[in-house]
Design brief:
Layout (H helix, E strand, L loop, with lengths): L2 H13 L7 E2 H7 L6 H9 L12 E2 L14 H10 L12 H4 L6
Parallel strand pairs: 1-2
Length: 106
């Protein structure tokens, strides 16, 4: 699968994440048909064209941690965006994955 095709699938999966929910890089990789490529998802999300208006801030790591500083103008801004949508956080600063993780039907 060419990278452009993989990126298209990644972006389609990210576009489906509902407001108030998060998914992991691994989930997006699985949804895009490349379950062993969560790092590629991270790169693709960080390079997503702004004109696609994707909710990339809804993608977190498997522990519910925010993206590194270089993404989304820092983890504080990503958290702000998620909190505005009603995503629930634990005391340790991670997303409460039990309450806020989206589990699509397919």
């Amino acid at each position: 699968m060419a990278y452009s095709e993989l990126y298209r699938k990644i972006y389609e999966a990210v576009a489906r994440i509902p407001e108030g929910k998060v998914v992991t890089y691994g989930q997006i990789a699985w949804m895009a048909g490349r379950p062993r490529a969560p790092r590629v998802v991270g790169y693709a999300v960080s390079k997503a064209p702004r004109e696609l208006n994707l909710p990339c801030h809804r993608v977190v790591n498997r522990l519910g941690e925010m993206a590194p500083f270089h993404a989304f103008d820092g983890p504080e801004f990503q958290r702000f965006l998620l909190e505005e949508e009603g995503v629930i956080f634990l005391d340790n600063g991670c997303v409460d994955m039990k309450k806020s993780q989206w589990k699509p039907e397919s």
